[in-house]
Amino acid sequence: MESISNSLNTNSNDIMNQLAYQNHAEKLKTEREIEFINKSLKKDGKEQVKELGKDEFLKLLITELQHQDPTNPMQDREFIAQMAQFSSLEQMLNFNNNMSKLLDKVSFQSSFNLLGMNVEIESANNVDENGNLMRVTGNVEAVIKNGAESYVRINGEDYPVSSIVKVSH
After folding, report:
1. Quick one: fold of 115-168?
2. Greatest extent of the chain over all pairs of C-alpha atoms, in Å
3. pLDDT digits over 27-46, tens only?
4. At CA 137, angle to CA 148 and CA 135, rounded to 5?
């Protein structure tokens, strides 16, 4: 009876070790597959383009014109429609870029209203011993722009405007 029990224990230990090995092997296989997929999504260290921009659209149109059938060239209507699409795409991209610039300027200029105001900031740089975010309170001494981000200076330190949680007089 004891030998059967020992045999069962040995078999169950072997099975557990085999399952652990299989789980580890499956984990490694999955990690390799993920790494392969991630590498395939990148080309020359850059992520591949997932959307067609104006440059890709223009290249596609030029390639289409170069490889069209000389006995059956592209109809004028088709060419004009594609050029109109290209023009619309370019105008939308320019509009989007201009709106982003406008929003950056408006955000920075609206930060001027904070000068002299008492604000409360919640900053990831200020945590207590328990890991809780601590708040910094003080008067806004200056408004600074660095790149696309606006900052306020409180007690000699610069904080992103986006970290303000309370404004008062």
Report:
1. SH3 type barrels. (2.30.30)
2. 92
3. 666 667 676 666 666 665 55
4. 80
